[in-house]
């Protein structure tokens, strides 16, 4: 079998998959496949089988430098400031303030302001997935596609 074709995610969170045999194109909602790391097996209505690989990281993780705040629901609502380092549709990475008490699996409410023309304020419920000294990684609890972030990532 050939290498899976790479499929890039579009601005609205969908991806077009074209059958290499009949060239019929189907549109899928890419975010519903975000946790799948291996290639997707596709069977076309023409009977062809092929594989595709959805490229989330290439499009969807952006290095940023944005200020924000957090409230740690798992630690008596402890609050702090943060410097957002990277942003994706699935989560964020940030540098916490010096004396943070954030632990893995804590639930944080994170608020930050995009440096877009509107100064869009984003507030997200997140779960901490990694803590390395002051470097915190969080996943968003909602997996619903957020077009405010999606549009920002592609500008
Ligand atoms: Zn086909």
Would you spell out the secondary-structure blueprint of this structure?
Blueprint: E1 5-8, E2 14-18, E3 25-29, E4 40-43, E5 49-55, H1 56-60, E6 62-72, E7 78-87, E8 91-96, E9 107-113, E10 121-132, E11 135-140, H2 147-153
Parallel strand pairs: 1-5
Antiparallel strand pairs: 2-3, 4-5, 6-7, 6-9, 7-8, 8-11, 9-10, 10-11
The protein binds zinc ion.
Strand order of the largest sheet: 6-7-8-11-10-9
Query: Cofactors and ligands present?
Result: zinc ion
How many domain units? 2
Shape: elongated
CATH superfamily of the largest domain: predicted glycosyltransferase like domains
In total, how many beta strands? 11
- Average pLDDT across residues? 89
Beta-strand level of the residues, as a percent range?
over 45%
Q: Report the CATH topology name of the largest domain.
A: Thrombin, subunit H
Largest sheet: 6 strands, antiparallel, barrel
What would you call the structural class? mainly beta
Distance between the termini: 36 Å
CA-atom Rg in angstroms:
18 Å
**What are the low-pLDDT stretches, counting only 5+ consecutive residues below 50?**
none
Could you characterize what this model shows?
With 155 residues, the protein is mainly beta. β10 and β11 form a beta hairpin. The longest helix has 7 residues, at 147-153. The strands form three sheets. It has a six-stranded antiparallel beta barrel. It has helices spanning 56-60, 147-153, and strands spanning 5-8, 14-18, 25-29, 40-43, 49-55, 62-72, 78-87, 91-96, 107-113, 121-132, 135-140. The protein has two domains: 5-58, no CATH class; 61-153, predicted glycosyltransferase like domains (Thrombin, subunit H). 8% of the residues lie in helices and 50% in strands. The two termini are 36 Å apart. The structure holds zinc ion.
């Amino acid at each position: 079998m050939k290498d899976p074709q790479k499929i890039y995610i579009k601005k609205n969170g969908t991806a077009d998959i074209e059958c290499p045999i009949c060239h019929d194109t189907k549109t899928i909602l890419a975010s519903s496949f975000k946790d799948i790391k291996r290639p997707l097996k596709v069977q076309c209505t023409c009977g062809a089988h092929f594989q595709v690989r959805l490229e989330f990281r290439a499009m969807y993780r952006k290095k940023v430098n944005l200020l924000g705040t957090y409230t740690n629901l798992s630690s008596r609502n402890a609050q702090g400031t943060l410097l957002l380092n990277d942003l994706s549709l699935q989560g964020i990475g940030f540098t916490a303030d010096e004396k943070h008490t954030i632990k893995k699996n804590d639930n944080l409410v994170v608020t930050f302001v995009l440096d877009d023309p509107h100064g869009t304020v984003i507030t997200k419920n997140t779960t901490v997935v990694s803590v390395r000294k002051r470097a915190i990684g969080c996943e968003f609890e909602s997996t619903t596609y957020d077009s405010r972030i999606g549009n920002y990532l592609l500008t």
